[in-house]
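seq:
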Amino acid sequence: MRYYHLVLVLFFSTQAFTQSKIDETLSNHLLHSQNQFVRVRIEFTQKFDSRSFHTQKKQEKKGITDRVPELITELQGIARKEQRNVRDFFVQHPQGVSNIQTFWIINAIICEIRSELLPELEQFDEIASIHLENNHFTWHEKPLIQPATEKMENGVEPGVLACNVRPLWDMGYTGRGRQVFIYDTGVWPGHPSFADRYLGNFRSESATWHGQFADVPNGQRSSHGTHVLGTVAGLERATNDTIGIAFNAYWMANDHIGTTVESLPTLADMMSSFEWALNPDGDISTSHDVPDVINNSWRWYDGADQEQCEGVVVDLMNAIEAAGIANVFAGGNFGPSNTTVSAPQRINTSEVNTFSVGSVNANLSYPFPISDFSSRGPKQCPGTGSLIIHPEVVAPGQNVRSAYNQNEYAYLSGTSMATPHVSGVILLLKEAFPDVSGEEILWALYLTAIDLGIPGEDNTYGMGLIDAHAAFLHLAQNYTPTDPLAAFLDLNLKTVSTYENMDVLCQSTLQPYAVVENSGMTVLSEFSVFYSLNGATEQFINWTGTLNPGETVQIDIPILTSNQTGANELVIRAELGNGTEEYDFINNTRFYRFNIRPTKDIPFLDGFEHGFGAGDWIVANPDGSRTWSTVDVPNKTWGTQSAWINGYQYGPNANQRDELISPLISFPSQSDSLFLEFDYSYLRRSSTSHVQDTLYILLAEGCSSAHFDTLSFLTGLDLAYDATIFWDNVPDANQWRTGKYSLTGVNGQNLSVVFQNINRSGNNTYIDNVSVYEKGHTPLLLTENVLEKLYIYPNPNKGEFTVEVSSEASDARFTISIIDTQGKTIYSQDPVNKAVKINLDHIPKGLYLVHIKTSLNNYIEKIVIQ
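struct:
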């Protein structure tokens, strides 16, 4: 330890004779990283005691609804006060600090900072410690997958029944009105076993999906999360195929778990998602958006045996528990020997904090044997007795059939398959006891588990197999359960749609309607339907009549007019009024999202420098898997972004079609020379024909992609830059080709350009610099005789360049304009000299056009500002 302090004195002379706040790992790292950026975690002195808060609220019998806003207010207040001076310091050193992430759930900041600023940072009294931040998380080892595409009519999975849920179903508990957060690799939202209960249908998507790798819910990185959710809440109603336990529960999800070393999320990613879970809708006064249970299928990546036994992660888990959320973890797939118990599963704040689940094989006869892969205890964190036993309980996790891909099923094995059985039971119990905290429900499951293996709690089975009915009876000793079969009110906004029956519209008007169902057990005589388009003031319709249980009524909404193109959002909600309490309030609201296509005049140009939204492109992704997006291509000589589709990782080989659709382009009624031009890049993955992707270039009428005119299609060597074979290609500057097509028969029409990729598990396709123009007004590639008359140097440049026009190209008067990729003129002048120096070093980097207009002609050339 003396050597450690000596190192700090030598490196940080300003810290002589003082206790350093820099931990040993960071100190050693700095010996080899002087005057460089280093990623650090700054922890502050004052921390909110979530454990004491939780104990106090239990003593006060404070309901979950009341405690969450109070907890968040306390956490945010402390973080705001403690972090203020450090944030000001960062503002004063903008070149020395980057990628700043602040957290209130544990009062910490993670950032990248130049090492020479660390001594100054240590001077802040409110900082307790500074750590090297290089932590990552991963899923548990990849489980065995046995695809099973068949659906079972009226089937119930044996593992589901092994948890003794039938008595609760018979009472009427199905998870109705409760919500789970699937902390995993992502979820395919359209899977028929749970698509109707995705919370994004009922709330803002930002409050129901916390994406790390994707902006919208999907399972393209892995179907692991889809499988997990199926066991929690899966029921395909068309076949009555019951794969899940709480089959009327709602769900939210993230995709924060990496399946490869390259995609491992960081500690900051993990903390951000838990912080989001405490306040998904961003309104601290509400708690209806907070999940009842978080299902976790992840672990610390290569952590030491006693890592995270205390510190920020323990504080984080305590905050989740204090909010009343049940926090359930897969115990690990490192059995049968105890090589390690992973973090955070090894945390031993209490027997049920970070509740860890082992796996048994429920496909065999009772008593169910432990799965060979199921991790054993004891935990490595200091403790005695039950605190160091691992796991807490076991559940079925071997050869579990559940949802897979978008409309399939598969058998998977792992403690990740056991954990959702526990989460599903928690949702049933939460429906029965809505005011009971997650911790109390976990204690009920822990204390009533069926003992397996050697008598008593052990490091193989923990307390034993969960028993849903026994836990219910345990809780009923102190709490009165709700009666799901008693007369109750439930107004269900079952459907929201429009008479246009399209999610993409060419016009700005639409007429929506709502189908309202009486899902309760009491006759309804009146209710109100409220509606709001794009956040406008709510309007409402009052309905009166007789609506018997199980009946529906359609409510027509007046014709609405949108004043915005692109993404639109209509929110409709039904309300009984007078503060009437309903059994399930989530289904009172529906979100209807649609796109109104903008119309652009020619010349049209888009280099994708600002993504698809800025240019009003939309993507058609029928299979929900990999599709068109924008990506940074570092080897180009123009701009940075391109459109691409990741064909190298796109499988299976099923000829999926993905479309990149431009805005509507208004073609002039009279013109004989109209053109489409674009740059593209592709290299073959193999010389065999069955892995050659195809790119169709189409024109689409109106807003429906059903009516196409095919301009061309490219495949094999017609699409590829050359005969090179290269896996997972990223184009070099010289690996681009240009497609140019004459457009005939389009005069007077509004049409979209469609790039349709047909996947055959081949390689990556790139598109850039799409332009539609009239002869003589080309916004991109010019014929050589024009290029010879217009000179720009240097190009690329840093924002300072010279434009020179030859004498034969202009008369005495001409205009120079600089145009961005959205067609906006950002600079213009009428120069006197033929050579003009221009300084635009204040504008963003990217692709621009230099437009020279003379009385004789127009000349246009690309420039790149780097």
